[in-house]
Amino acid sequence: MCDAVIKPYFLMTATVIVAAYFLGAVPFAVVIARVFGVPDPRHYGSGNPGATNVARSGNKAATVLTLLADFGKGAVLVVLADSSIMAALAGGMAVVGHVFSIFLRFKGGKGVATALGVFCAWYWLAGIVSLVAWALVFVLCRTSALASIAAMLTGVVMLIMWTPLIIAWAGCGVAALVIVRHWRNIADLLRGRERSFSR
For this UniProt entry, which residues form the secretion signal (predicted)? Predict the structure, then answer.
C-alpha cells in the first residue's frame, strides 16, 4: 500500500524537477535575439543572456519578448502545481535552470525575470510588490542590478509573511541565488563603476 503511494509521488516529484529545470534552461534571450537579427546578448554589454542585456541592443520588441518569455517560464509550472511542495520545487528549479542552463554549457542569465515570474505565481502580491520595487529603484538609480536586488529582498519579505513555510524557504533560496549572481555588479556598485542606463 505504501509503495503504491510513495512511488507515484517520487515519480511525480522527479518529473516536476526535471521539467522545471529544462523549461527554465531554455535561453530565450539567445533564441529571440537570433529571430530578430540582433547580436547575441552573450557577446556585448555584460555578456549576460537575459532581458536587461537584450535591452542594450536597442530592439524594444526583442527586449519585451525576452522579458515575457523568461517571466513566463518561471510562472507556468508553479501555476500548474497541485501542492506547495511541488510549487516550491517547480519555481526553484526554473530559476536554477535559467542560471545554469544545460543549453549554454551550464552558463546562463542572472535569473531576475524568471524569479519575478516565480514570485508572482507563488503569491501574486509578492510578485507585484517586487516588480514595483524593481521599477522604483530603476527609475531612481537607472541601475538594473540594484533594482534587481531590491526586488528580490522585497519579494522574500512578502513570501515569508504570507506564504507556507516551504514556499518562503524556496523564495529565500531563489533570492539568494539571484543576488549571488550579481556579485560582480555589487562589487562594481561599491566601487562606483556599475553600468547604468542613460536617461
Answer: none
Share of the chain above pLDDT 70, in %: 93
CA distance 17 to 34: 29
**Cell 516536476 -> residue:** 16
DSSP annotation of 147 reads H
> Which one-letter DSSP state was computed for residue 111?
-
C-alpha to C-alpha distance for 41 and 47, rounded to whole angstroms: 6
Cβ neighbours of residue 72 closer than 8 Å, sequence gap 6 or more: 117
- The pLDDT value recorded for residue 58 is 84
State the virtual CA torsion across 128, 163, 165, 23 in degrees, nearest 10: -50
| Residue 81 phi, psi dihedral angles, 5° rounding | -65, 145
Q: What is the DSSP letter of 103?
A: G
**Which amino acid is located at 17 in the chain?**
I
Burial of 167 from C-beta contacts in 10 A (0-12 / 13-18 / 19+): buried
- Residue 38, helix vs strand vs coil: coil
Phi-psi region of 42 (alpha: psi -120 to 50; beta: other; left: phi over 0): alpha
3-state helix, strand, coil in the chain (%, to 5): 80, 0, 20
Asked if pLDDT for residue 112 goes beyond 90, the answer is yes
Grid coordinates belonging to 182: 550579481
